[in-house]
Amino acid sequence: MPSSSEPIEPRTGWVLYDADCAVCTRLARSWTTTFARLGLSVAPLQSPWVSERTGLSGRELLSNIRLLENDGSLFSGPEVYRYVMRRLWWTYPLYLLSRVPGLSRVFDWSYRTFARNRRVVSAGCDLPRA
Description:
Blueprint: E1 13-17, H1 22-30, H2 32-37, E2 40-44, H3 48-54, H4 58-61, E3 66-69, E4 74-76, H5 78-87, H6 92-99, H7 103-124
Parallel strand pairs: 1-2
Antiparallel strand pairs: 1-3, 3-4
Helix pairs in contact: 5-6
């Protein structure tokens, strides 16, 4: 039986987002139903169990969105989006485009640029912190 700090284990794993980022929090919450169909739960990167399970420091964890599978596999950054897009029929074409040489670099660059500036974007959109 999991401890009170341990989450209930979903069928597949968890999408882990930065709860201090209003944009990230809104996106995670709005996609919760879709993630659930894929067997994924949503949890903040700041949850104590996340650092314990991944072995990553808090600072390192917060550098990217993460997807942690039940078997311990960890996906980070743009690979999280690819993971999800590959499993949904209506986003699969975007997944294919994100793998095309040249376009994959644009996809990765776009993600990294947003990730680096996500708190500025949240503030600029006048979104309250979650």
